[in-house]
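Supplementary Methods, section 5.1.

A reviewer requested that the exact input to the structure prediction be made available. We therefore reproduce it here, unchanged from the version used in the analyses.
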Amino acid sequence: MVFYFASFEGYGFKGFHLPQEIHVVDWHKELEYLRILRESLLSNELPFFVQNLNELFGVSSITDKGEFLGIPIYPFSFQSILLMFMEPMQFHVFSHFLFIILGFFGCYLIKKEFSLSLLSFFFIVMTFNFYGGFVGKIAAYGPSQLGYYLSPFIILVLYRVGNIDKSSYKNQSVFLAICLGVALSMILFQGSLHYFAEWITFLIFWGIFNLKHFKFLLIAALSTILLSMVRLLPAAIINSTTGNTHIVQGYGFNPEFFLQTFISIRGLIDFPAFAWWEFSNYISIIGFLLILIFGCLVYFINKQQSLNIKGFIPPLLLLFFISFSDFQTILIPDFIPILNIESMTTRYFFIIILFLTIIAAVNFDKFYKGIDTLKSKLMIWFLMIVHSLFLYLNSFEWPLHKIQAQLYDYGGTELSGSLRLKNINLYMQNDLTHTSYVNSFYVGLCLTGLTVFILVFYFYFYFKNLDKKSSL
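The structure derived from this sequence is encoded token-by-token as follows.
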């Protein structure tokens, strides 16, 4: 959140002026989506068609007639109702605070799961919230990135399902599968389509190497599809036969550059200019060494593992593989819906970083608790604070006011393109003759509503039975 505080120096919610003219990278697009939702709520009219939607995408047309509800790249979640009372930027900042709290709770559940010390928990929270791959992307892309904060819940569910006792596997796996479906659906409802596709890709890889959990994945898939039907069905109607025409690209084969993505603090105009956020994995030199030693090397050195990660190694290696060059096309054909939307394959890497961060924290915690001397513990705390300061310094390269100023000072073609988009204001102009698309939204809404109703009852009876068992 430092890029908001830095951007809004002297500003706030009550009686203050939040910036409304941010248009660096994708910010104008994202704020326009929110403005359309706000107008829709205030006018009580669903934005089925936004006729000039494709103007924001240039030659990369995504719809025929501007079928706005068929592109799940804007928030359509419970807090969206607040757009009736807030301007788009206000709403985004408020949503970000909500998701920070949600992400913190996910990290706390991981702390409880592994009985981590305060130090290890601090390492997870700081690395997760200030991970350079996320900080740069949310500074560049805005609201569509908030689904990132649901990642700890997915990791925790996958770990738990792999460590359930056989006696209680049936009941618990169903519960965890539905929880996974809820988390994935929440990512999609937040408009984080890329995070959704990246997690789905990983889950397919994980399922291939963990076939014993096939039923778990099947229930999770059904839960996700049914919960997200209001978003998926309209998208399927207008994009079902559309392949990805973008050039697939990932990390190159320069080991020095790849190393720099983890330890080098760079901003918008550093090499590669106006693209660094797509490559950054910044976790500081201290975080990098902790993850390298306790997240990777300890697996090969220490025979007694602090946690069972065998089921995660093959899918993580596959994710690592497709993050380079155009290797994704070897495993994922460009005609497969959802999986085909990711053409910048460096974006998969956040999943690897988050898994390794948690694995490293658990292994490091065992090491830290074995230290007896106060001096050594204070030294480790000092290194952890330095790690946090480095992460914080990296975030100071990405305040909105700073990158907007850099756009004007060094933008060149990026500035001219951004100014062209800035002059495009979306507007609703509904043409309800596209009945299959319009009806798909209402059918999807009914299916999503029915699924929510059923799951509320499921969770009620599940926790009621848990209370009964615990009282016996």
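The two ends are 46 Å apart (CA to CA). These observations are discussed further in the main text.
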